[in-house]
Description:
Elements: H1 2-24, E1 47-48, E2 58-60, E3 79-84, E4 92-96, E5 106-114, E6 120-122, E7 129-131, E8 134-135, E9 137-143, E10 151-155, E11 165-171, E12 179-185, E13 196-201, E14 207-209, E15 218-220, E16 293-296, H2 313-325, E17 329-335, H3 343-364, E18 371-375, H4 388-394, E19 397-404
Parallel strand pairs: 8-13, 17-18
Antiparallel strand pairs: 1-4, 2-3, 3-13, 4-12, 5-11, 5-13, 5-14, 6-7, 9-10, 9-12, 11-15, 16-19, 17-19
Helix pairs in contact: 2-3
Amino acid sequence: MKRRLIALTILSLAINIVYGQSQDTIKLKNPSFEDYPRVSSAPSGWLDCGFPEETEPDVQPSPNNEFKVNKPANHGYTYLGMVVRDNDTWESVGQKLSSPLKKGQCYSFQIDLARSSTYISQTKTTGKDANYNTPAKLRIYGGFGYCDKKFLLGESSMVINYNWKRYVFKFEPVDDYSYIILEAFYQTPTLFPYNGNILLDNSSDIVPIPCSDEVVAEVTQPEPAEEKTSSPPPSPKPKVAETKPPVKVPDTPKPVTPAPKEKQPVAETTPSSNKEPVVFQGKEIGELKEGTTIQVNKLFFEANKSTITNESIPTLDEIYSFLSNNRKVVVEIGGHTNNLPAPDMRAKLSRERAEEVAKYLEGKGISRNRLQTRGYGSSKPIADNRTRQGRQKNQRVDIKVLRID
Length: 405
């Protein structure tokens, strides 16, 4: 009798453990994005989280070859197609989780990603058809409501592969998030919005793992047999020349001994003749025009201050590298705010933030003659100040090309 009681106790504990593990695993609705192929309509189980007056993501492959996206699904019959656009809008979808992500618990999540070599759609900037085939990345957010991008859970590298690849993410939520958002986004920093696409298929459950576990960022999956009938076009060159880091300026530079009776002028470092110009999102100096405005993303300041945060340094260094390698460009650095601060505060804060960016670039060696600053306050919104997302977009820094000498 005693042995039987012990056996029943062990069995009960085992069942509780298995049951508890299954309860901790978070399942998505329609994880493989199965639906009828259709355009501008998110797949069943997913809610469109895109911009007002913009079309929704698509269930691919294209019905009637409308967008010319012909890649077979890697799992099931359909998959999700999302784009980023040259008018500075991008697509995303979200859903409520079967159970919340828990603060302090780590999770593993996997999904198949690819891009299509053709994704033909009209662009609002020209009104003409364009091929949205530039690489994009996947961002994954957790939040407290549909489309609430409260916390960035994970971010892929640029999806340049035409064949399906398995991407693995590790989530470390800082709060109990009940919703997940999948977002297509540009290469960062985004100085030139562009037309690109990303394809999503076969997402996994969100599985608890020990926080000490290491995860592999990407795992290559073989191309499905039906995809090998044609060779994919070659991957494009990276949009930012990562092999050309900015010139390092020491904190306390050694003084240069001047020639006798002559004062040595301080000048910007002249790039070597064999150095290629830095490119941002596929645009080289020859493609820039006077009046071109570049919105700078991932440039952050302390709340209600002009102090630049440390996480903004890579973005500032990208701007420095571009100006250093293209010495004929003269720019205006424009600061912008949303409509929350008092009117006098808006003008002051936007002007001071623009000035801080100029000071950083000047400290790295860019001539102040090439840097003009201006504070626009809230006079030039690019989004609706009535929404949180709109206010975030309006609080920004732009770089405008004044002239190319």
